[in-house]
Design goal:
The protein is mainly beta. 0% of the residues lie in helices and 54% in strands. 30% of the residues are buried.
């Protein structure tokens, strides 16, 4: 019904920047929430950033001031601008979209590696 396509992952040096994007397609009337989670090996998946219907945003404490989430409602696309990247940001990043109260979808994940 809904498919998410992620792009933008890769290898970057500490202090560098990366931009992720996630485009949702399919049967979509409105999107209540779009965001990003990440999961490193041996850890649980955690919220990185989210953009809500009313325009508010949520960020993990570890990324505040460095990451910025935005979205283009006309394109059903969410972006994550990641600056001042640290090795501890290394993880698989997953796009997450809440279409309505009951329907949540996940992207396949994109690898972000921060290393010298």
């Amino acid at each position: 019904q809904v498919q998410l396509v992620e792009s933008g992952g890769g290898l970057v040096q500490p202090g560098g920047s990366l931009s992720l994007s996630c485009a949702a397609s399919g049967s979509i009337s409105s999107i209540y929430r779009m965001g990003w989670y990440r999961q490193a090996p041996g850890t649980q998946r955690e919220l990185v950033a989210a953009s809500n219907l009313g325009g508010s945003t949520d960020y993990a404490d570890s990324v505040k001031g460095r990451f910025s989430i935005s979205r283009d409602n006309a394109k059903n696309t969410v972006y994550l601008q990641m600056n001042s990247l640290k090795p501890e940001d290394t993880a698989v990043y997953y796009c997450n979209v809440k279409i309505d109260f009951f329907s949540v979808y996940w992207g396949q994940g994109t690898q972000v590696t921060v290393s010298s």
